[in-house]
């Protein structure tokens, strides 16, 4: 459509009558006639330019991969790859359960950055070229260590195949990881550990169990369990009254949850062996059986959960892993352990190292862990 010209009332564009011949009106400014044609040409040109811009935009949208519609998270990437292989929804849900919750949490962070990078560089996150993967890992290595990059590689390997090879097994990716290790070698957190006698001497200096506040009793029991079992914080959190059995001189806890150490390939060692606590008659302040009996008595009327370790503040709900970690760290600091160096999980290395030095065949593990504790620490 051609727009009509806009007539202005200025002196330059007005129609002025000719008084010499009133019967024949003349146009005072002849420029107005060609201006109509110019406006029409300009309007048609604008319409053509807009149409060309629309066509080019449409072609760009059609040629660019729909990254935002393909995948935006780790789970959506997995689903996209499996659905392309014709796998049903129920089977996909079961396959997603093959990754533990902790692994999913780690992968989600890595893949979130990966999908953002793919969106920025206009690549499909499930079918990228190997050069783009290496470029992404290089960028990540500027602020992450070898172990963190290894986690990112594992996350990408869960759904990316390069040249009919899993991403993690691709020769170029393996060569990249080897070079990164030489640049940023993964060193152990601890090259030495603390002596468990420091904590046990602190426990001996405290009043009898019956005189301790619930906070002190809870924290003391938690650290003693960490030393006796030499287990992870996740395992301590999993201790439950549902899996507890006891005799006059011992307590035993079966682990009813799927833990990090639980393996479907483990055979007899598929699940962790029960944690056994035996009576220690030589010092009542170090006897876990007396500790546990007193703790269960104090918390009997407060319990709303079957989890063994409860928060001592109201409401006394089940303690989280982070809470258990904080209890251990505070107790270690009160005992004199340098907590700026040694974290809560250092109880594992402290217990097993002491067991090895004492030449204990048990190493602080399995149902005989209390025997290892007696040989090493008491």
UniProtKB/TrEMBL annotation:
<protein>
    <recommendedName>
        <fullName>Tyr recombinase domain-containing protein</fullName>
    </recommendedName>
</protein>
<dbReference type="GO" id="GO:0003677">
    <property type="term" value="F:DNA binding"/>
</dbReference>
<keyword id="KW-0238">DNA-binding</keyword>
<dbReference type="InterPro" id="IPR010998">
    <property type="entry name" value="Integrase_recombinase_N"/>
</dbReference>
<feature type="region of interest" description="Disordered">
    <location>
        <begin position="39"/>
        <end position="58"/>
    </location>
</feature>
